[in-house]
Structure formats: structure tokens, C-alpha cells
Amino acid sequence: QVQLVESGGGLVQAGGSLRLSCAASGRTVGSGGMGWFRQAPGKEREFVAAIIWSGVSAYYADSVKDRFTISKNNAKNTVYLQMNSLKPEDTAVYYCGRSASVNYSNNYYRQPSYDQWGQGTQVTVSS
Tens digit of pLDDT for each residue in 9-49? Predict the structure, then answer.
């Protein structure tokens, strides 16, 4: 079982930046991919970004593309989310998930594709 721990959340002003990290431990991530989802109070959890672990393909929600960048360090079993030009509507708890699906490239945006989740990290963007 892979244990996921998010970090890097905090309070920033609109237009600022944050870099989230998600470190995996307990078992090396070797297939599928990892993704970021977020959930704001009163809203459904939504897809933010995802990346294939053994490759370089990355995917983004329309709401964050060109502002957020997902990356990974395979040797460190860590995935990152660089968040630039933050907006108040980005405020949410951000969760890291791992998917072992062989069809990850077709299911990266679906919550059921992920079998492990981190505890979440709060991101608050003030105006």
C-alpha cells in the first residue's frame, strides 16, 4: 500500500504562487499515474491535474491550465503541483491520489480511478 502525504499548502494573496508536494512511501510508485483533486466547501471534489508516472504526459482541468504545472521526481516518488497566478476561486483542500490503472490515460480525471489518497492540504487565496 502506498502512503501519500501532501504538503505545501497555505495562505497566499491573489496572484501569488504555491508549490504543493505529494510524497509516496511504503511502496514505490511504478505504474499508472498520480493526480491532484480539490474540494471547496459545499462543492464536489474536482479534477485539477494528473501525470503518467512512467512517462511525461500531463493533463489539466480547463480552470487551471496555463497557471498550474504538475511534475514529478520518480527517484523521490514525489509529485508536485506548481500553482501560479492564484485566484480566490482556487481556494480548496487539495488532495493527491495514486492510480494503478493500466488505462490511466483514459481515466485520469475520474475519482474511482484512484485507489490511494493523501490527507489533503489547505490552499487559501485571499483577494
Answer: 999 999 999 999 999 887 666 678 999 999 999 999 999 99
Q: For residues 37-74, b (16+ Cβ closer than 10 Å) or e, as one string?
A: bbeeeeeeeebbbbbbbeeeebbbbeebeeebbbebee
- Spacing of C-alpha 119 from chain mean position: 12
88 class by beta-carbon count within 10 Å (0-12 exposed, 13-18 middle, 19+ buried): exposed
pLDDT digits 0-9 by tens, 65-115: 999 999 999 889 899 999 999 999 999 999 999 998 888 899 999 999 999
CA end-to-end distance (rounded Å), the chain: 40
Please, which residues have CB within 8 angstroms of residue 103's CB and are 6 or more apart in sequence?
none
Contact present, 24 and 2 (Cβ < 8 Å): yes
